[in-house]
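re the bet — no i am not wrong, look at it urself. input seq straight from the record:
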Amino acid sequence: MDMFLKYLIVFGVGGTVCLLAQILIIRTRMTSARILVLFEMIGVFLQAIQIFEPIKNFANAGITVPIIGFGASLAKGAMDAVKEYGILGIFNGGLTATSAGIAAAVGFAYLFALIFKAKSKKS
């Protein structure tokens, strides 16, 4: 029963994030790219004020899988690097913390483009 509750929480939090994005798409003139950037900045903000970790401990993948988790990872990497390297850590900390995810996204995108022969849309 404990595992079921954990899955329910993850699904509920992740679904709520997606619901908020869908409401923004329907009710505003924001493009999906702007919504992604907004959610990423929300992750950065939550990490900066140090409330992302308690949310992550409660929601697990429900908050880390959406783009909010990526923003928080960027901010955490930059903050850790500033502590270690000083002000220059701002530039390399975020990329160091998220490099594996970025590399995987680019690699899998390339692989699937080869497999499925991706084509541009015709206007």
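see?? The chain has a mean pLDDT of 90. told u. also Helices lie at 2-27, 32-48, 52-59, 61-64, 67-85, 89-116. so pay up
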